[in-house]
């Protein structure tokens, strides 16, 4: 007989059951990338941006926290006049009262650059001795095109030849319970210059 007869399916109803397998992917949990030992601050920011292990730093995941365990003294620029990679993800630097500084005698560069897609929170950290030069180059400590929150921190003794000796803001900046003093510029905004950005001080 034919195959259907041999399988005993002739004259009977045949049911085909389809199993739908749903794979639920849990949301990514934030990572903590500790700046210590072989993990430098520039590598920690790169790892947080890319969710990939970088240098001696663990991979980031979603929104990341970067705790400091000591003074961070930057000796060379990461790119152009930026001492660290541009922040392009959501990162909180938990300073624990420590300082991020441009080392004495190092070439001119700022300490942080927040890109348009970046969201940087600086918590309990001191930023000092950042310096940028050149026309249309502002923000001795920070230049911001994204979202910046400075909380319980001090931004002191930074300089920019154009504007914003401490912070040049072209995005959204919120300053909470922080000190911005002793910063210098040849043009506008010794402490903060908000160009087309929005700035809130609490």
Describe the overall structure.
The protein is 7% helix and 31% strand. The chain has helices at 3-6, 41-50, and strands at 64-67, 72-74, 90-94, 99-102, 112-114, 119-123, 126-128, 131-132, 142-144, 147-151, 154-156, 159-160, 167-169, 172-176, 179-181, 184-185, 192-194, 198-201. The strands form 4 sheets. A 6-stranded parallel sheet has the order 1-3-6-10-14-18, covered by helices on one side.
Put the structure in a nutshell.
The chain is mainly beta and 202 residues long.
> What is the count of DSSP helices, taking H or I runs of 4+ residues?
2
- Report the structural category: mainly beta
Strand order of the largest sheet: 1-3-6-10-14-18
Along the chain, the helix and strand elements come as HHEEEEEEEEEEEEEEEEEE
- Beta content comes to 25-35%
Largest sheet: 6 strands, parallel
Q: Any idea what the radius of gyration is?
A: 25 Å
- From the spread of the alpha carbons, the general shape counts as globular
Counted beta strands: 18
Intertermini distance: 87 Å
User: Which spans have pLDDT < 50 for at least 5 consecutive residues?
Assistant: 3-14, 16-20
User: What's the average pLDDT?
Assistant: 88
Share in helix:
under 10%
Keywords summarizing the entry:
31% strand, 18 strands, 7% helix, six-stranded parallel sheet, five-stranded parallel sheet, mainly beta, single chain, disordered N terminus, 202 residues, 2 helices
């Amino acid at each position: 007989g034919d195959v259907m007869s041999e399988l005993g399916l002739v004259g009977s109803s045949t049911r085909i059951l389809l199993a739908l397998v749903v794979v639920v992917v849990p949301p990514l949990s934030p990572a903590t990338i500790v700046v210590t030992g072989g993990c430098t601050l520039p590598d920690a920011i790169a790892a947080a941006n890319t969710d990939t292990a970088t240098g001696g730093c663990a991979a980031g995941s979603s929104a990341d926290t970067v705790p400091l365990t000591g003074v961070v003294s930057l000796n060379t620029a990461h790119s152009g006049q930026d001492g660290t990679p541009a922040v392009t993800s959501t990162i909180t630097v938990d300073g624990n009262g420590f300082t991020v500084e441009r080392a004495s005698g190092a070439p001119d560069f700022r300490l942080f650059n927040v890109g348009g897609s970046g969201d940087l929170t600086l918590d309990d950290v001191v930023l000092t001795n950042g310096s940028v030069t050149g026309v249309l180059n502002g923000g001795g400590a920070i230049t911001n095109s994204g979202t910046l929150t400075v909380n319980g921190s001090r931004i002191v003794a930074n300089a920019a030849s154009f504007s914003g000796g401490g912070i040049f803001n072209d995005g959204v900046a919120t300053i909470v319970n922080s000190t911005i003093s002793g910063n210098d510029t040849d043009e506008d905004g010794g402490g903060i210059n908000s160009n087309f950005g929005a700035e809130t001080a609490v």
